[in-house]
Please model this.
Amino acid sequence: MKRFRIATQIAMTLVVGSLGFFSTMADAQAPKTPTQQYRRQPMARNYGAPVRREQPSEYKANVLDRDVVLPNLPGYTGKQVFVSGLIYPNARNSPGYMVTYNTEHTKDQVKQWWMNALNMPPWKVTFTDASSIQAVSKDGAKVTVSPGISVTTTAEKRKGMHGSYIVYYHDNGKPR
Model:
């Protein structure tokens, strides 16, 4: 008797399951009205791209079109050409700068010059590795110098140049 019940339940499950299969096939074969046939889900406005948020003002930069003199920072004594620069006018406490120069000297010569210059008062080197030098001045200004190979730019700004360096400078905003 128990075997009969189990066999009946299995048979009923197969019949009910197959009816569901046939009903979905019937739906698939049924003619669709034009609105059903062409209805699509609305697409995301940016097609999956992240939505751009307004950047905080302290991170917005303005392009520099010429060289600037950075306060209290020694000037490079070798031949150099201004390539590009950014100023962050709303950085915390005071403006921040990122300036790129091409130089006639090699990467190693540029690094050595900056190591010597930033080891003199009022600067103190706080970190150095193969690609950068970081220093802090007595008044709290911070600088990072990253020497490198000549930066790609116009032919006149690259002629005779063998190296480059980028200066990241941020004053602390204290009066001098």
Remarks:
- DSSP finds four helices and seven strands in the chain.
- The chain has two domains: 2-37, 57-170.
